[in-house]
Structures are given as structure tokens and as C-alpha cells.
Amino acid sequence: MINLRYHIVSIAAVFLALAIGLALGSTFVDSVLVSNLESRVDQLQADTQDAIDRSAQAEAVRDEALAARDEALASVEGARSERFEVEDLVRPYLPQGRLSDTMTLVVAAETVDPATVAAIRDRISATETQLGGVLWLSDDLRLDDETVRTEIAEAYSLAGSSRAAVQRALRFLVPQALFRPAEAGSGATADVGAITDAGALDGFSRGFSSVPRTRTALTVLRDLGLVSHDGTGAVALHLLGGEGLRLVVVTDAAAAGLNEDFVFELLRAIADEGHDGTGVVVEVPAVGAASAAYGAVTARVQSDPLLWNSFSTVDQVHTFSGDLALLVALTKLPDVTHYSSSVVSHGLGPP
After folding, report:
1. Closest C-alpha to 261, from 342, 143, 170
2. pLDDT digit string (tens) for 288-328?
3. Confidence at 185, pLDDT banded by 50, 70, 90
4. What pLDDT was estimated at residue 188?
5. What is the dihedral of CA 287, 292, 296, 299, to 10 degrees?
6. Rounded to two decimals, what is the model's pTM?
């Protein structure tokens, strides 16, 4: 016989166990869920704060960039304004077509820094003048070496190779090649005879009938290695010359011997032939030399009345005022002017 009380107790026990199990299970699950949710909330809060911090940093960087931009714009505007002021100041001095009928040859001693000469050449090439290139002068043109003198005498068919004879020949032939190439030697036999020992200068004293047109007094010196011509983008050496030629003679105190024995002698010969007001003597600092030596070239020109009245002078061409002074001196030729850094801004406009 089935005991009803036993079944009731059993059923009650099952439901009690189920209730206890549900209670325990829900408590454990609720604890894990709460823990997970709290962890996620903390992470979200941390991420939010990090995002806020990064946003603040980005805004700070943006503000700095905007401030830098504004400063740069102000600087550009200031520079533009200053440039306009400078242009207004120097415009009256600029070439502005006044060199259009000229050819300009840079003549430089080999001691001079090539970068300095290149800068001068670039400045000249930016004007309307026809660029004649750069004629580099070897120190052997001092004529101290008897072998050099003999080679020159043979090349020009001189009767002798004495220092005086070679110097006199160069004083005649080089200016002639520079300023009267079409007339070189024509009808000048008597003059040549007066300045050389025998007056026999191959074809140079009797016109060019027996001399190739590509051979001039300058190309002879080039072939002897006494000069070199940097004629890239410029007039070829044998085509250089004419009444419209302008010389920019660049030298330094390190070339004192070459200056005295050749450069200044050449300039005197040019002036003696009536071609004064055709060049500018530019003194640059000697490479590696004491600053005390600077100024010797312009001082030498100033001490010679013929040179002082025949050729303009400029120094400190690496400065703005010196660079401008060179252009001004070129445009004013044949009027001779002397610009010095000892005068504030080379005397160009207000200081």
C-alpha cells in the first residue's frame, strides 16, 4: 500500500532542493555579471578619460600650429614689406636695360675663390649684357720664368724673350684683341716696331690674312696654358672683344705679384689706348689670408692716378650693398665710380 505521506515528503524535498539550487545559482551568476559589468564600466570610463586627454592634447597642438602659422604669415608679410622698401630704394640703381649693348668679360686671378667668381658671373648673366665668360689668369703671367717668356716669344714670333720685350708685346696685343679685334694688327706695323725689339709678330702685326680667325692673342695665351676660358653659355674666346666690351677684374691680395706685373700693366695699356671707363676692379678677400691684407688692391688702384681715373672699384661684393655696387658701377660706365665698404652701404641710399 502506497504511503501518501512519503510521496509528499519526497516531492517537497525535490522542490526544496530545486529552490535552494536556483537561489544559489542565481546568486553566483549575479555576482559574475555584476563583476563583469563593473569591469567594463571602469574600462569605458578609462577610455573616455583617455579620449578626453588626447582631444585636449590635439587641441593644444592645433592651437600651437595656428599660432605658428599666424607668426609665419606675419613674418612673410613683414619680409614682403621690407622687400618692397628695398626694391624702391635700389630700383633707380638697377641695370634696367642699360647693359643691353655691351659684352661683359670677367677676368680673375687663379688665387680667387671660384665660388666667389661664380656668384659674380651669375649676377652679371642675370642682366641684359652679353656674357663673355671668365678669363682665368695664371700666376706665370708674372713672366718670372724664362721658359714661359721663351714660349710666348716663339708663339708671337718676337725677336727676343727678354722680360721687357714680352711685357711690351702683351701690352700691345692683349688690349688690341679685347677692344679692336677686327683691326688687330691692321696698319699697326709701325706701332709694333716701336714696342717690340724687331716688330715681327707673325700675322698679328700684318692683319689676319695669314692667321686663322680662331687664333687671337688670347687664344695663343690659352694654348700656352697662361689663361683659361670658362665660356660655358658665353661667347667663345676667339670671338670676344669690341668697343662695347666691359671688364670685371676680380683679384685679391694673394695675387699681389700677378697684379703688379700683369693686371695693372694691362689696365694701364687699356687706358693708354683710350679705352678708359671700360671696366670695374673688384677686390675680394684672399682665401686663408689675414684680414689685414684686405684692401691692398683698391689702395693700389687709388695710388695710381691713371688707374683711379680709368677704372671703377668695388669691394665686399659678397654683401648686398657690394653686389648692388658692382651692378651700379657697370651701368655707369664709362663714368668711373668708386664704391667702398668703408662708406655705409657703399654710399648707395640711406644706411
Report:
1. 143
2. 755 558 889 999 998 999 999 999 999 999 888 888 889 98
3. very low
4. 33
5. 140
6. 0.69
Residue entry with cell 696654358 = 225
Does residue 285 have a cis bond before it (omega within 30 degrees)?
Answer: no
Does 230 have pLDDT greater than 70?
Answer: yes
Q: With CA atoms as reference, report the closest residue to 114 among 141, 134, 129, 132.
A: 134
Q: Which residues contact 268 (CB under 8 A, 6 or more apart)?
A: 171, 304, 306, 307
CA 181 to chain centre: 31
Q: Tell me the three cell numbers of residue 208.
A: 689676319
Half-sphere exposure of 176 (CA within 13 A, CB side): 20
| Residues paired with 106 in a beta bridge | 134, 248
Strands lying side by side in the sheet with 103-109: 227-230, 130-137, 103-109, 245-251, 279-283, 312-315, 338-339
**Measured between alpha carbons, how far is 325 from 321 in angstroms, rounded to an integer?**
6
Higher pLDDT, 249 or 10: 249
Residue carrying C-alpha cell 663673355: 132
Q: With b meaning 16 or more CB within 10 Å and e meaning fewer, what string describes 141-166? A: bbbeeeebbebbbebbebeebeeebb
